[in-house]
Amino acid sequence: MNLNSLRMMSTISNVPVKTYDNPDHNKEMIIAENKNKTGVYSWIHIESNRRYVGSSINLAKRFREYYNFNHLSSNKMLIYKILLKYGYSAFRL
Predict the structure, then answer these.
(1) How many domains does the chain have?
(2) Is residue 8 domain-resident?
(3) Which residues form the domain of 49?
(4) What is the tens place of the pLDDT at every residue in 31-45?
């Protein structure tokens, strides 16, 4: 490992760049603010603090999928089932 790699690693943080406390009410803002962005995101269940971590090269598109009932209900991914069961307001993003 070279010195440049160590410098890069030292700047990585677990502090979120942006947090949405109520993804149910902030749908449009979430999609708009993440247009043309790549990144890692996390759905955190408020009551249990359990989280799902995902990533996308097109965050706005991914979030539109999360807010599309037909997409969620036709897919077998666990996070989709949980969002449908508890609703977006039970999570932070």
Answers:
(1) 1
(2) no
(3) 20-92
(4) 999 999 999 999 999
pTM: 0.80
Euclidean distance between CA atoms 78 and 32, whole angstroms: 26
The CA-atom distances, in angstroms, between 1 and each of 7, 12, 64 are 11, 16, 39
- Residue 84 CA to residue 68 CA, distance in Å, equals 11
The residue type found at 49 is N
Asked whether residue 2 is assigned to any structural domain, the reply reads no
Structure tokens at 12: 């990585």
* Residue 42, domain member (yes or no): yes
